[in-house]
Write a structure and sequence with these properties.
Length: about 170
């Protein structure tokens, strides 16, 4: 089963990417995870361009979501909000039904993250994605919980990520 994992950070080798890499290595072998890191390639949302023929990068992004059985989004918080690049990409999905009933896992991993987490939940509910409380995870203080090689060094965070993964996988069983 295909899982699309979207990192909300545009930083190369970010903590969010490392979390998604960890998940891709720990997930049940029946899942194939693709980590999407190309948010910067998606043009600024413009309703005038959201027609029958939207920009090619938007079509590609939408197709990746459509073709996946599930989606995991892992994002930081920037200035008490979602990163603009992630919000922009999600705005391109509003006029579609590609997230409707799509099985979803949501992780906010940042210094604090509470505001971005709230906004992500609201947006994904608006897009009618399917997720429960146990398929959501807020990891505050992420930089002290993961090392440069991407190993989760904080025991409670490791346990929380494994629990998140277990609950995410069980949506499909």
């Amino acid at each position: 089963m295909k899982i699309l994992a979207i990192t909300g950070s545009t930083r190369h080798n970010s903590s969010n990417f490392k979390i998604l890499k960890f998940i891709s290595e720990q997930i049940n072998p029946c899942f194939e995870v693709e980590i999407f890191e190309d948010l910067t390639e998606i043009p600024h949302f413009n309703p005038d361009l959201d027609t029958d023929n939207p920009p090619e990068n938007v079509v590609s992004f939408r197709n990746k979501i459509r073709d996946a059985e599930g989606v995991i989004i892992c994002t930081p918080e920037y200035v008490f909000s979602l990163p603009g690049s992630l919000k922009n990409a999600l705005e391109w999905c509003v006029s579609t039904t590609i997230f409707s009933n799509k099985k979803l896992g949501l992780i906010t991993a940042s210094a604090l993250g509470e505001m971005a987490n709230e906004q992500l939940l609201l947006i994904m509910k608006t897009l009618e994605a399917k997720f429960e409380k146990n398929q959501q995870l807020l990891i505050s203080g992420i930089r002290g919980k993961i090392d440069a090689e991407g190993r989760i060094i904080h025991k409670e965070t490791l346990k929380a990520l494994k629990n998140f993964l277990y609950n995410f996988e069980n949506q499909f069983l």
